[in-house]
Amino acid sequence: MSPIPASPVNTPVNRGYFAIGAEGISKGLNIGNLMRSAHGFGAAFTFTVGATYQAREAAADTSKGIQHLPHYSWPRIEDMVLPQGCRLVGIELIDEAIELPSFRHPVRAAYVLGPERGSLSPEMLARCDYTVKIPTTFCINVAMAGAIVMYDRVRSLGRFAARPIGEGGPVVAMEPHVQGGRVVRSDIGRGETE
Ligand SMILES: C[S@@+](CC[C@H](N)C(=O)[O-])C[C@H]1O[C@@H](n2cnc3c(N)ncnc32)[C@H](O)[C@@H]1O
Hints:
globular; binds S-adenosylmethionine; 24% helix; Alpha/beta knot; 7 strands; single chain; alpha/beta
């Protein structure tokens, strides 16, 4: 079997951007892990809101993620300043949240997690454009939850070779990308392109 051409792992998603952060997080190790994953998955920046530790110390302990990505430490929700058009997506295990496997990730998104011993505040949930939940029976580690959401974003918005139909089946190389035709607004709905 010929090897599959490597996916461009450094830029699997070439549209939009994302950021990830946490509200009220207290353990440096958790934010350090989150930053490390964020860097690996291609985040544009990381942030904390009302964190109770020094993000700089945490990052120094683990991935040095803060050296590679911009990091914002906002003291309060009112201090948060996201780029124009960036959707805020809460990550929380609550009934009304959208199941992650059914969620369409915004092209421009900032994901926010809750504290280790608690949940996203009602104020933060109110500020979110969407809230998603990972289908687990109980809460998992906050940095782990962040990594799963980032993986789901890259998996669903990125371009990868298809999985084989059956276990152990051949892995087929990705088709080369073909630029689509120009879509004329009046043709939308009739499925026509120029
Ligand atoms: C460890 S949990 C908080 C503990 C939890 N509220 C409790 O006391 O049972 C920390 C954060 O991880 C995220 N999280 C963990 N599991 C999750 C899940 N299954 N779906 C969505 N978010 C999750 C949420 O952001 C949550 O606020």
